[in-house]
Design goal:
With 420 residues, this protein is an alpha+beta fold. The chain folds into 3 domains: 164 residues, no CATH class; 44 residues; 176 residues, Bromo adjacent homology (BAH) domain (SH3 type barrels), CATH 2.30.30.490. The chain is built from 15 helices and 13 strands. Strands 1, 2, 5, 6, 7, 8, 9, 11 and 12 form a 9-stranded antiparallel sheet that branches. Helix 7 runs antiparallel to helix 9. The radius of gyration is 24 Å and the shape is globular.
């Protein structure tokens, strides 16, 4: 928790700002302020399921910046928000660290992924000393224990399992929960001991007799689906007639199933959101567009896997709906799929910056509900002055995934054509 949530992020930020050394490249004050404003501007693009969003580091980095804020700031947003401000070599070097840490933070990792993480972290640590320490005695303070400790994370993951399961997140959360239950300020420790004892006894009883667990109340108006998915309201009050481009995407979906549907107007009831098995709520453009943009934390971008392609793809959900065909009810999502990540940026960033172009109604597809794996953030891609002047990366967004979920790790070559 502290290694990647506080120690390394604090070291990197101070290093790049020139706080730890007076010589070498460092961010100017104007650049640091611009960087802080950029980080703060991502708030509206981070789904509510991402928890607390990172505050402006230029203003709040010394005011109790939380570990969770650092996790989102450095490991989720880092490759994009630092690209404009760091020299190319420093940025690419930082991306090696991000690749390794993202794998280590996953709930599940394959042996192949752990090998990728170990290689990336070793390369980062070795180049860190060459780039920043340079074997100069006056820079010895730059090589903190955290620089080498992170190398052991993939090895410990293989030995102990996912490290987030043995981190202090659960313990600190429990301490907070128990502290809020104290009702005897005059004798708090005895009260706390009694509360802890009762909770342990209750957990033991429920483990022995699970049927005693009080079931959660059903969500009013929801449609419970297989595999722990739940379709959530609001819904249309009246039938919605699909637009021609939307109906075309639906017919294409059913053709892959060997089903032919009417060429007449297709009418459906739209649903607002879908609760995923990981407890994230995937919302839709249909409902989020009814609210002011500055009051919405965008939760309509999702990661999914197509049946014919194991590589994850990303898209913006337009709406969810159900439709009957061959006496079967199909629960589907209309999604505007993003382009494949830009290969050049992907290579330069060591497979950590997934910059994809948004194409709106030009790339609509229909997905079965259980193909959606998680909700992701898609903030606009920050551009350099040269890219803005050259008109590059128009309408591009980058992927930011919530820490502790399964991050995207490329283990093979990209397809030449995205097939859309």
């Amino acid at each position: 928790m502290h290694l990647v949530g506080l120690n390394i992020p604090e070291l990197l930020v101070k290093l790049w700002r020139g706080v730890l050394r007076e010589d070498g490249t460092s961010l100017a004050e104007s650049e640091w302020k611009a960087h802080g404003a950029l980080v703060e501007s991502t708030r509206r693009y981070l789904p509510g399921s991402f928890g607390r969003t990172p505050r402006n580091p230029a203003l709040k980095i010394n005011s109790g910046y939380k570990a969770w804020e650092y996790l989102l700031y450095i490991w989720a947003l880092g490759p994009a928000v630092f690209r404009q401000f760091l020299p190319p070599d420093n940025w690419s070097h930082f991306c090696s660290l991000v690749l390794g840490v993202r794998i280590v933070l996953q709930r599940r990792s394959t042996l192949k992924e752990l090998h990728i993480a170990f290689k990336a972290l070793v390369e980062w640590a070795q180049k860190y000393e060459e780039m920043y320490y340079q074997r100069k005695p006056k820079r010895l303070h730059l090589v903190r224990p955290s620089v080498h400790a992170i190398i052991h994370a993939p090895l410990e993951t293989r030995r102990c399992g996912p490290l987030n399961l043995v981190a202090q997140w659960a313990l600190e959360n429990t301490i907070g929960n128990l502290g809020r239950e104290i009702r005897q300020p005059s004798n708090p420790f005895a009260n706390l001991s009694e509360i802890g004892t009762r909770r342990a006894q209750l957990n033991a009883v429920l483990a022995i007799h699970p049927k005693l667990q009080v079931p959660k109340k059903a969500i009013r108006g929801a449609s419970y689906l297989p595999n722990k998915y739940v379709l959530l309201p609001a819904t249309d009050e009246h039938l919605y007639t699909m637009q021609p481009v939307e109906a075309s995407a639906l017919r294409k979906y059913f053709r892959t199933k060997g089903i032919s549907i009417s060429q007449n107007d297709i009418q459906i009831y739209r649903w607002a959101s879908l609760l995923l098995p990981n407890r994230q709520r995937a919302r839709s453009l249909w409902r989020e567009s009814t609210r002011s943009a500055d009051k919405v934390r965008c939760s309509r971008n999702v990661k999914f896997v197509l049946r014919h392609d194991p590589k994850p793809r990303y898209g913006e959900v337009q709406y969810f709906f159900q439709i009957s065909a061959r006496q079967e009810v199909h629960t589907l999502a209309l999604v505007s799929i993003y382009s494949l990540p830009d290969k050049e940026l992907l290579s330069q960033s060591k497979d950590t910056l997934f910059a994809c172009q948004y194409r709106g109604n030009l790339s609509l597809i229909v997905l079965n509900y259980d193909m959606i794996e998680s909700v992701v953030a898609m903030p606009p891609l920050p551009l350099t002055a040269e890219e803005i002047a050259g008109g590059e990366f128009t309408n591009y967004f980058y992927v930011a995934e919530k820490p502790f979920l399964d991050a995207t790790v490329l283990l093979g070559e990209d397809d030449e054509d995205d097939g859309i």
